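Margin note from the TA: students keep mixing up input and output lines. Inputs are the sequences; the output is the structure of the whole complex. Example:
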Amino acid sequence: MQFTINRNGFIAELNNVLRAVASKTTLEILTNLKLEATERQLVLTGSNSDITIQSTIAVDAGQAGLVIEEPGAILLPARFFADIIKKLPADTVTLAVKTGFLATITSGAAEFKINGQDAVNYPNLPEVEGDQSVQVAPDLLREVIEQTRIAVSKQESRPILTGIHVLLTGTQLTAIATDSHRLAQRKVDLLAPVEVPADVVIPGASLTELARMIADQKDPLDLLIAENQVLFKFGHTLFYSRLLEGKYPDTSRLIPESSDTSLEMDANELLAAIGRASLLSHQGRTNVIKLSLTPEDNGAKLSGTSADVGVVEEDLHFDQVSGQDLEISFNPDYMSDALKSFGGAKVRLAFTSALRPFTLVPVEDQENFVQLITPVRTF
Amino acid sequence: MQFTINRNGFIAELNNVLRAVASKTTLEILTNLKLEATERQLVLTGSNSDITIQSTIAVDAGQAGLVIEEPGAILLPARFFADIIKKLPADTVTLAVKTGFLATITSGAAEFKINGQDAVNYPNLPEVEGDQSVQVAPDLLREVIEQTRIAVSKQESRPILTGIHVLLTGTQLTAIATDSHRLAQRKVDLLAPVEVPADVVIPGASLTELARMIADQKDPLDLLIAENQVLFKFGHTLFYSRLLEGKYPDTSRLIPESSDTSLEMDANELLAAIGRASLLSHQGRTNVIKLSLTPEDNGAKLSGTSADVGVVEEDLHFDQVSGQDLEISFNPDYMSDALKSFGGAKVRLAFTSALRPFTLVPVEDQENFVQLITPVRTF
């Protein structure tokens, strides 16, 4: 095996594949990167068994400057190999494996010889012969992930809640996440209708990693779903994630359909006020702040208290407040997470009572996006 | 006590004083910030007992927009208070203490009430009635600190070595640090001769913090030395540090006066090569790399080995190599630290033998700056 490649382009591809390689893993073999050179292309594969990322560099891809002198395959310690490539002195790098699994990496006057392993030991890629391929715009997919991942559970006690529930029906993708204290639900349009409806739970960590990877993508992604895997195709990259097993709880009846009190205001202004109130609540044992709404007097006040440290009170600048008087207490961090997902839009908060979950929706699009938060009982 | 001030300017001063406030401290009172308003000025003081920083804002300092409505003093929890000021909504902030030690902080529609303490409980400032005041240029002082602090010991076993030895004689300031494996020594000119020579040991951590604080300073600093304190005055800030007690070891005879082998090359090129070689040495149990010099063949080779992982070898691009053949092994991290302190200049390495300390000096100024490193025995 021997190839020469432009170092900067190679580093970019290594960084992509490295996203899947865990620094800690129970499977030692997965600390490696698989490099596979054929006549026409170099394929890099990294995996942590939850996520597998495969990147293909073609010999005719101008920028990569890839020249394959001899096909072959090898496993090399992923992070260590990437560190070497990043520190090499010259613009190009040559990797050669002549005898056994000793890889010689040459660049300028520097020569590394590092021990690799036989590529046949690396696990096979998941098989995703999807029933259908769905296309989705990368910016929209990122938005869906960013808006729902905040509500994904961090507790392993109910593993299914560490995933995002993804439903494909007609021309719609619906994503739902809940940690049982809060819920996020977002609906977006697909670029074409799906043939067969799908209902899967994708690990939140996988989608978070995917969102980071597609930040610069312009072209639509292909989404393929198989028995226990989902595959996203974009550029020259394949991104596999395992699916979570089990049934996601029915969340359709959690979102209240009516409200008794509502408040409309700028999401960022409310976010800043919550940030101030939480300075106090973070000092106390119970991380709770209070919102007091008195629509008759046109009043909306936020307050936080910590017995030892002090109190904070602030009159909110709202656009509209209506309905019945209400005092409601909640975790300010949940509220901050939710408010950040509105990207500075006007937001509508709708309440039924002090102990029932309340909702946040964008004033301009109240149907397709909702954040729900369960209040905290303080009396 | 009551004053109003521009929030942004106030934040800058708070950040400065906060550098002295430790998040963990054995003295609870030092988690506070002291605010003292007189008719003409507001004085902020923070301390961790090693370092004390005091900043004075005058009512006539235009940008600060300080208005003192009622003189007085209070202690407030330093980081919590700064967090509040940073998150306030309006351009100005008013702090009022009307009864007891309850401080009311108002900005826009937000009002915080936080519990403070009586200012009389705060420790008094160190007394520095220095025999003499020495002036030194801020950029030169930063350079001295940056170049010597790398050799300061991190071990508390010999406390005196956690300081930088500072000598003032004639028009010269000499700074020396050693952790007994390496040594850094730098001499710079003062702006005027000192009347009485001084010989003190200043904690490395204090000087590191000072170097950060004076990054934007243009005017000379005043340096005052007292029995067990040193005071740096700059802008409207006083920076006190305690001095270390005890006698600093005599380092004058550690620096070899002659050499048998020498190498001259670009510091940054050598730094990059050391970085590559250390990729291997960091994988092994002994963090050591080897430099092989063969002046007769015009050869200079760097190598690193880790039995498990592999080897690296690199021919160096040097300007000059002369003297006797030499193989010498050393800790690459010490070498990297030393090389970074030369700011990309040409550097001259001078060796006597494989087991004797070797030196690095800038080719252009071989008298005033030296880094010394003790090699590692590998045979």
